[in-house]
Design brief:
The model has no long low-confidence stretch (mean pLDDT 94). It is built from three helices and no strands. It has one domain (10-103). It is mostly helical. The longest helix has 30 residues, at 45-74. The chain has helices at residues 10-35, 45-74, 77-103. The protein is elongated and about 45 Å long.
Length: 106
């Protein structure tokens, strides 16, 4: 049985938590690394808040699809949580790559 799109599950919750928290800091990660200043992680609060919503929503959707499928395949609840975490890391990685693109000269 396939999970419904946007349906609540343990994987969706894990994905939303990882995506939201990661998205909050991912946009400033490249600037903080290049500037060698951890304060730059939150230098753009409006963009960080937008990425918080994008990461949380994307993590909910992707983790909600990936988590239950892994949970069914391996027949274990922890596999569903790990699938949700991996699903939450996907929007975080995309936001971090976008942040890296924005701070590097091209």
């Amino acid at each position: 049985m396939n999970p419904g799109f946007g349906q609540a599950s343990l994987g969706a919750i894990a994905g939303a938590v990882v995506g939201a928290i990661g998205g909050l800091f991912a946009v400033g990660l490249a600037a903080a690394i290049l500037g060698r200043d951890p304060a730059l992680l939150l230098a753009t609060p409006k963009v960080s808040t937008i990425c918080w919503f994008i990461g949380g929503g994307g993590g909910w959707l992707i983790g909600g699809q990936l988590g239950p499928r892994l949970g069914d395949r391996f027949d274990h609840r922890n596999a569903e949580i790990i699938g949700g975490v991996v699903g939450g890391l996907i929007p975080v990685a995309l936001v971090a790559l976008w942040g890296w693109y924005m701070v590097t000269p091209h």
